[in-house]
Specification:
The protein is an alpha+beta fold. The chain is built from 10 helices and 7 strands. It has 2 domains: 2-189, f41 fragment of flagellin, N-terminal domain; 276-422, 2-Layer Sandwich (Heat Shock Protein 90). Helix 2 packs antiparallel against helix 3 and helix 8 runs antiparallel to helix 10. It is rod-shaped. The chain starts with a helix and ends with a strand.
Amino acid sequence: MSSENARTESLSGWPVIVGLGLVTLLIIGMIGLDVHFSEEESRKTTDIIENTQRSIVLLDAIRLHAKHLAATDAPLEIERWKRAIAEDSLSYDPIAVTSQGERDEWLHLQDLLRHLQIDVSNRQRPTPDLEAALDKSLDDLVAINTAEGKGTSAATQAAHRQALVSDLIVGGFVLAIVAVISGWLLRVLSRQRRLVLERVQFLREQNAELEAFAGRAAHDLRSPMNPIRGYTDLIIEAPALPENVAAMAQRIRRAVDRMTRVVDDMLALSTSGRPPQGRSSSAIVIARIIDEMGAELQGIELATRLEAGQVACAEGVLSQILRNLIGNAIKFRARSRPLQISIKTRDVGQIVEIAIEDNGIGMDPESAKHAFEPFYRGLTDREVPGHGLGLAIVERTTRALGGTCELTSVPDQSTRMVVRLPRA
């Protein structure tokens, strides 16, 4: 049911993707339109302002030329100011078409200038009414251009306000979509979190059931072996026992011993994921193990360098880890050379590092890759006794304590196991 719900949630995520795509397109479109309209308005505003300024400059120039024309009697000067007025009028005329009122006033000014030029050419003094009419027409044209400039500024401001309103509307729409998407994502994440928690709880219950089953199975398997072992010992100790019967009894006892070890290892594996809390001294535990395994370490060159402090691990758990590692080094010794074992401990920050290295038969890379798997024996030496649970117990117990295991090995040369556990 959980996997089906998770699959449904993953399939129903397409509205989020569509919503994010729509938000992205809206943002890109909004930015693009803003840039386009800003450039267009800037260009138009610049053109109108430049035209307005140029128009006013030309009108002032025409005013000045008209005054000079009205005040002179010299023919050359008259022709000079006529040309100046004609050039300025020709320059002004293409830009004087922005409104009907300006066009009409400009035509009126041209008519007044013609009257002025006729009077001057006929050696007549321009009348005051004509000069006043010229000044008034020029003032009206300047006022028209000034008003157009102000109108352009107001229109530009209105366009900017409209663009701002449009941005606010689009931005609000985008925020609404983002809010919907956020709500959807929160809903999906909440469901996913609930599913994960349910799955974790389910796995915890399953693991607890498996561990309980392994413990019960180990206990139930061990119980019938005790009488078998006892009866076998009685048979072996019986007097005048036929040789073949004694041999069969010995084989039965060895088989019972092997089965007992398997059951003990299975029981240890079932509880390795829940080691008890505690603290211990690695140096004291290693010294105790060396003393207890004295008979097994006979003829072995053993070197120790113990520099670590307290380990956040119960003494019994640490003893089990080290016994497995030292026992492996003894079991997988090379027949062609004396066994050498090195045990070193050191503090590395908040970690206690325990390294056990031997010069045994080693492991090939493929075997080293699967060394921590339960019941994996590898291809090193099938004649070595064991059931492939030792390193699995070590790795699982170490991981449950918050530590790590690392194995490096070279075939027919050496094996090095490094266990890292939290400091107490």
